[in-house]
Design brief:
- The chain has 408 residues and is mostly beta strands.
- Helix content is 3%, strand content 43%.
- The chain has one helix spanning 2-12, and strands at 33-34, 49-54, 64-66, 69-78, 81-90, 96-104, 123-125, 128-132, 138-142, 147-151, 167-169, 172-177, 184-189, 195-200, 215-219, 222-229, 232-236, 242-247, 258-260, 263-267, 275-278, 284-285, 291-295, 306-308, 311-315, 321-325, 331-335, 347-349, 352-356, 361-366, 373-378, 388-390, 393-397, 401-406.
- The strands form eight sheets. Strands 1-28-29-30-31 form a five-stranded mixed beta sheet, with no helix packed on it. A five-stranded mixed beta sheet has the order 15-16-17-18-22, with no helix packed on it. The protein has a four-stranded antiparallel beta sheet with strand order 2-34-33-32, with no helix packed on it.
- Strand 7 (123-125) and strand 8 (128-132) form a beta hairpin.
- The longest helix is centred in the first third of the chain and has 11 residues, at 2-12.
- It is globular and about 55 Å long.
């Protein structure tokens, strides 16, 4: 009884933001770490499912959670057009609080079979919700769904659609536009939606499309916007000026960079993904001077990395789980028997790791240098979206529905 009372207080109270809100891509610090004391470790299509809400359309964005409500984007196609939408659900029962069209698509609808027209995860800051639809535009709403501003002036030619999520950087909202023929990164005033700056990406790669999500860091007292593109990772200052870049041969980059121990951990993307660990310092081309080490086996092309202490965890697209020493690259284990093709990024919570594959199976593994399987679960539906959580509860989005998973 005490446990359930505490959960109710955390999930459904009103007031200021607390640590159990999930407000952006990959959670409170943007790195997949859930600051909760407990989550379910066992579920199925029926077991420990509090509710399941079927949703029309197709979307692979992660739901956001704030103070008892869930905020999602969606895309519903009809007759060569897409209704690009934002909606709000009551986290208690999955009922729809509001659902409104943000944009009707313009131009050709382009996406990969594994993509959607609503793959970018939105952001909540204060009483504002920022929803991003890649080359179709970005809008700001209040939490009741009322429009504050929209910007559709940065249309670009996509390849395989959109995928990267935006990031808030002080008074800016920053996002990548890595289409063809001229990829760029842009920053809008987060209060008004006005363009603050636009910087062309100086990459020579033949395949210029990528789907990166910016990461804001401060290294040696220097504020940096870290973003990956085809052929290179770039650091920019808050005025959009390039600080440094590190070259590689990959393209169609999806995983979000990870920053810990004063180092950046990045995946080079397709065709052969390589983990590069680099120092985020210096100026200009730091390719030769700032590499710490690299790993070229079982590195993800789609799922992002996890870090707990000095252990770095990777979930390859084939489902292989790797744990290695984050400072040296020494491999502690590689385990390939439990899940299959993977796109969603893993999360960590309360000393446990959650890895989900595209068939809807999730394994729960104990954090540590040896592989310890705690549970294997499946909702038996296609899943490409990453989880969102609050205290004691997981929100898992499948191709058909949104699940609320908690122990009863």
């Amino acid at each position: 009884m005490k446990k359930h009372f505490l959960l109710a207080c955390v999930v459904f109270c009103c007031g200021q933001v607390h640590a159990y809100d999930w407000l952006e891509h990959r959670g409170p610090k943007g790195q997949g770490i859930a600051e909760v004391s407990a989550l379910p470790i066992e579920w199925s299509k029926e077991k420990n499912v509090t509710w399941r809400k079927e949703l029309p359309g197709t979307a692979w964005s992660t739901p956001l959670y704030k103070q008892g409500r869930l905020y999602l984007t969606n895309a519903i196609e009809s007759e060569g057009k897409a209704s690009l939408r934002a909606l709000c659900l009551d986290a208690k029962d999955g009922s729809i609080v509001w659902d409104r069209e943000i944009f009707e698509s313009k131009g050709p609808l382009i996406k990969h079979d594994k993509n959607s027209h609503a793959s970018s995860t939105p952001i909540i800051e204060g009483d504002r919700l920022y929803v991003h639809f890649g080359y179709q535009g970005l809008a700001c709403l209040d939490l009741n769904g009322k429009s504050i501003w929209e910007n559709r002036d940065l249309y670009y030619n996509p390849t395989h659609g959109n995928g990267g999520s935006p990031a808030i950087v002080e008074d800016l909202i920053v996002f990548t536009c890595d289409g063809t023929p001229e990829p760029f990164i842009a920053a809008l005033d987060k209060m008004t939606g006005a363009l603050k700056w636009k910087t062309v990406r100086k990459t020579e790669h033949a395949k210029k499309f990528s789907f990166g999500t910016p990461l804001f860091i401060e290294a040696e007292g220097r504020k940096q916007i870290i973003t990956q593109a085809s052929g290179a990772i770039f650091a920019y200052d808050l005025q959009g000026k390039e600080l440094w870049h590190f070259n590689y041969s990959g393209y169609s980059v999806v995983p979000k960079p990870l920053y810990e121990h004063g180092l950046l951990y990045i995946s080079s993307g397709y065709d052969r993904s390589i983990l590069y660990v680099i120092k985020p310092t210096g100026s200009g081309d730091v390719t030769e001077s700032h590499l710490v080490y690299k790993v070229d086996k079982e590195v993800p092309k789609n799922p992002s990395f996890l870090m707990i202490g000095q252990e770095l965890y990777m979930q390859s697209d084939k489902g292989t789980i790797t744990c290695l020493n984050a400072l040296t690259g020494e491999v502690y284990y590689q385990e390939a028997r439990h899940i299959r093709n993977s796109s969603a990024s893993p999360i960590a919570a309360a000393g446990k790791l959650y890895f989900t594959d595209e068939k809807g199976s999730t394994i729960v593994v104990a954090a540590g240098k040896t592989f310890q399987l705690l549970a294997t679960n499946s909702i038996e539906e296609r899943v490409l979206a990453s989880m969102a959580v609050t205290e004691g509860t997981i929100f898992l989005r499948s191709e058909q529905a949104l699940y609320c998973i908690s122990e009863h």
